[in-house]
């Protein structure tokens, strides 16, 4: 009788352990690069493949290549601003389609390498625009700028490869700077906010609060996608964590250092006033 009870306990413990292993294996299935998804998508319709490539391009902004992370980031953008989510989606799809039409390397296209610059360009055009949300004329420069990023990427890659330098966000920087130079605050079709505020800048003498500083750390991660709300920023951080916990830790550490560095002038000001 005692031996039967002991055997049943061992069997139950073994089944619980196997269940835990299956759950862990299922979770790990959606982490990392999800390279197994590439084999599964080989014989699927082009529209479905394009969606996965685009989601990988979205996650490329945070140095990831996980399509599920890209889906979480798009959900966060929809939560924060549907207009910005629309611009970002349009940018990543336009640049990815342009790369396909130009015949760029298939591995680079499927890995989202040609999508993230287009997304950044289109989103930043929306952020800088002073015409407000749902200004449909902005879709035109967003599409053109996103497509131009692919041409710049393919042109800069052979040149920078000689020095073992990545192209990274060079196309995005070039296109967005040219766009801001060609337009202006008083452009009749594509106005944007002035680079510097009117009048002298005032010193921020507000009281330093630990809660606001801690809140600014996850917000710093969300600002990668020009997102200034806490909830969507936490969801973006979750997307980074899904791809790599180490990358999420580095993102938090970098944001914390930047936040504290930004608060240092305020701390010095309070010390001088107190003295």
UniProtKB/TrEMBL annotation:
The chain crosses the membrane at residues 58-77, 134-153, 165-186, 221-243. It is found in: Cell membrane. GO terms for cellular component: plasma membrane. The keyword Transmembrane applies. It holds the Pfam family UT. Belongs to the urea transporter family. This is Urea transporter. It comes from Notothenia coriiceps (black rockcod).
